[in-house]
């Protein structure tokens, strides 16, 4: 049985961070979001990363199943991607005129992604989901946007909820919400808003937080695609999280349909800072008509990294590899849970698996188990899907299963059957 | 007299780009915006950059007065910044938990910027202007935002105009517009919207396009600051463009007042991809309450680059250096114009000078002169302020003046007195 880690350096540095940064650490990585594993159970600062591991500032190593919340797809500090980036940096990065590597990257994406006739580059997933909605509104001259409950499309006011801090009613008054996989509800929202819906925006499957992830029901996407086409509504797929982990041709292609607009970010360049909106020819001129740019959007280094990343993902057939790794891990974890009498549910695509201990619907027992895993070197989280990266080895998976068993043992002792 | 450049490679590659990228090249750097120097006069793709120069793909070198529209403040590929970035990259960049270098950078900013009690990092200037407005709305529980006509605060729908593609009336219905430097108009807008104004957002001086740039009138900022305080309205300074080029303590400090929130981006890390919102203690908890994050926002490399950049800007006293370089260039250009009988107006801060040939109010003569400069190796633009970087030498300025004279001679021959 492994001893649990302690984090004196992380705690001390977090106090320092809290003095000069709101929340100390913000976003997913911070403790302030209120939906994480208990503050005491997890490290707060990393000192370095390599492959499928990172090390915290107290000297502990983690097998990392969050992958920087997605960008790490080939392994941290991938030598091929880093070498391509280094070579481009010697020439230049953020220059008054763009580099040809931007065009090379756009050509590679349009060759790779089934629904991409063109590519537009930015920096955040949020930049391209926002551009997608603006494009749909400009093209249709309509205002309303259909969302699926449980969605996440970034942090811009238009995509937040009315009760979120900083959001006003005007930001969200044209938003319509329907239930995922509910074909009748989608038909109803079109019938009730005839000629008014600019876009449907959706993740390729429902990978929401605090809930089992749901793949599309049989025929669901076919029906949504048909309704969008019949109503001249733009179908936007937000592939920021799942993109390239299911299918290099896009997650829409994986599920057997084509989006009008598709948003990529996380797995695009193995951590180098770039996002992309891709789409169909009929929307290209509309995108051109929108005033949309940013200070670093034409920087060359992330484009060079993106080319190296996509080429390597093709060579390794990364989606198949991640599915195999994820499925193997799933089998090992289910076996470990069963051996200790726990009912572990693993949902979503294996490459982005979501976990929940179904023995306790409050999710508190699940949170306890996650905490005991993290404190022994397996970085899981308790509310969000996980990410597999291509450098994860059989040895890593075996070690993960061992640590998961230790953690099950601890919580079984604490909560006897 | 220098022969004008031609751009066969740029033209050919632009055709290629146009097939796979909306507009071919978007934003400032692209020809589609309709407000640039004539398409035929300027290069479209760079091959490399160094110091104050970049080279295009037809082999021409430019003395670059656009500096990637701001990020290049020390000189392209600055060895100190690049070395700090390289060292951090070896440890890691975009990792599940942030690096301590984030805290170091926040401490350096709060030590450097007069109105900064804390710092929040993102990627685009637009990310932080949006967060500033959300913070003001959350803090005041009011909706209205006062803008100064001629402003630019990014590309989010809330900051665009009602007639822009992709924008709906709900995006901008709480926006109020007043004239820059018009104290009475600011008083009036507060009187007419008593208790309803969440924020005033403004650049530190009016550095708009197609118009002489205007420094703040005597007493203007003092009055605006007083009205904001009296009305419990949040004063947001958008220092994305001018930040660190006028004063390392912030452009508000330069003009003798303190903002409640101040937005930085371009000169923050010499081209490495980071932006920052800084602000006063009383708004820190409000920022914490807002759901706001992005995939690469905690990446360590740009923080390391930012620290190296700010430390070097301090060592070199970059604002004084840029003012001296900009003033010297201004004198040389005014002399050259006068020698050929042209009335050149140079406005704004010397470090971010704006130019206009006042002989022709249509600005077409100015556009012709800019075109002839660009085609001989001086990269100016005809509608936007320029940027000085710290690696610009006396020799560069002399060469610029020589080329400007060639360009004046060409247009004097074309338009005799």
Summarize the structure.
The structure is a homodimer of 417-residue chains. Chain A has 417 residues and is α/β, with parallel strands linked by helices. Chain A is built from 13 helices and 13 strands.
Structural account:
Two copies of one chain form a homodimer. With 417 residues, chain A is an alpha/beta fold. Chain A folds into two domains: 8-64 and 318-414, Alpha-Beta Complex (Aspartate Aminotransferase, domain 1); 79-316, Aspartate Aminotransferase, domain 2. Chain A is built from 13 helices and 13 strands. Chain A has helices at 8-20, 79-91, 101-112, 125-140, 169-172, 183-192, 220-230, 251-254, 284-289, 300-316, 318-339, 364-374, 394-414, and strands at 46-50, 53-56, 61-64, 118-122, 144-148, 175-178, 197-202, 234-238, 261-264, 275-279, 344-347, 354-357, 378-379. Chain A starts with 7 loop residues before the first helix and ends with a helix. The interface between A and B is large, with 113 and 113 residues.
CATH topology of the largest domain in chain A: Aspartate Aminotransferase, domain 2
Q: What spatial order of strands do you see in the largest sheet of chain A?
A: 4-10-9-8-7-5-6
Taking all residues together, what is the mean pLDDT of chain A? 96
Tell me the β content of chain A. Answer: 5-15%
Please report the distance between the alpha carbons of the first and last residues of chain A.
20 Å
Please state the oligomeric state of the protein chains shown. homodimer
Secondary-structure class of chain A: alpha/beta
Q: Specify the number of helices of chain A.
A: 13
Order of helices and strands of chain A: HEEEHHEHEHEHEHEHEEHHHEEHEH
Low-confidence stretches of chain A: none
- Assign the CATH architecture of the largest domain in chain A: 3-Layer(aba) Sandwich
Which chains share the greatest interface?
A-B, 113 and 113 residues
Helix content bin of chain A: 25-40%
Q: Which CATH top level class of the largest domain in chain A fits? A: Alpha Beta
Instruction: Give me the Rg of chain A, rounded.
Output: 22 Å
Anisotropy-based shape of chain A: globular
What can be said about the biggest beta sheet of chain A?
A: 7 strands, mixed
The total domain count of chain A is 2
């Amino acid at each position: 049985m492994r001893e649990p880690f302690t984090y004196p350096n992380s705690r001390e540095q977090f106090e320092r961070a809290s003095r000069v940064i709101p929340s100390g650490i913000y976003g997913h990585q911070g403790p302030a979001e209120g939906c994480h594993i208990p503050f005491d159970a997890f490290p707060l600062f990393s000192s370095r990363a390599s492959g499928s591991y990172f090390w915290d500032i107290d000297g502990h190593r983690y097998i990392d199943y969050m992958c920087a919340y997605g960008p790490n797809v080939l392994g941290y500090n991938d030598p091929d991607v880093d070498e391509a980036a280094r070579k481009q940096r010697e020439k230049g990065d953020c220059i008054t005129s763009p580099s040809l590597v931007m065009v090379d990257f756009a050509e590679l994406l349009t060759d790779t992604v089934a629904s991409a006739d063109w590519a537009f580059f930015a920096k955040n997933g949020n930049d391209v989901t926002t551009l997608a909605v603006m494009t749909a509104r400009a093209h249709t001259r309509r205002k309303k946007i259909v969302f699926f409950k449980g969605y996440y499309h970034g942090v811009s006011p238009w995509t937040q909820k009315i009760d979120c801090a900083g959001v006003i009613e005007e930001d969200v008054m044209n938003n319509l919400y329907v239930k995922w996989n509910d074909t009748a509800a989608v038909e109803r929202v079109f019938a009730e808003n005839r000629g008014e819906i600019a876009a449907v925006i959706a993740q390729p499957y429902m990978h929401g937080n605090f809930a089992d992830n749901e793949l599309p029901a049989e025929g669901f996407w076919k029906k949504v695609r048909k309704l969008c086409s019949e109503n001249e509504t733009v179908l936007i797929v937000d592939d920021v999280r799942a993109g390239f982990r299911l299918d290099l041709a896009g997650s829409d292609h994986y599920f057997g349909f084509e989006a009008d607009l598709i948003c990529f970010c996380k797995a695009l360049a193995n951590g180098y800072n770039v996002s992309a909106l891709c789409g169909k020819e009929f929307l290209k001129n509309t995108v051109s008509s929108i005033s949309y740019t940013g200070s670093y959007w034409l920087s060359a280094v992330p484009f060079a990294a993106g080319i190296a990343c996509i080429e390597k993902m093709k060579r390794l057939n990364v989606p198949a590899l991640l599915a195999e790794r994820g499925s193997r891990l799933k089998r090992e974890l289910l076996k470990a849970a069963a051996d200790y009498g726990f009912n572990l549910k693993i949902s979503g695509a294996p490459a982005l698996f979501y976990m929940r201990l179904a023995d306790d619907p409050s999710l508190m027992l699940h949170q306890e188990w996650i905490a005991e895993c993290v404190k022994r070197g397996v970085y899981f989280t308790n509310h969000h899907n996980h990410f597999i990266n291509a450098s994860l080895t059989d040895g890593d998976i075996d070690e993960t299963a061992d640590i998961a068993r230790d953690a099950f043992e601890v919580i079984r002792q604490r909560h006897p059957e």
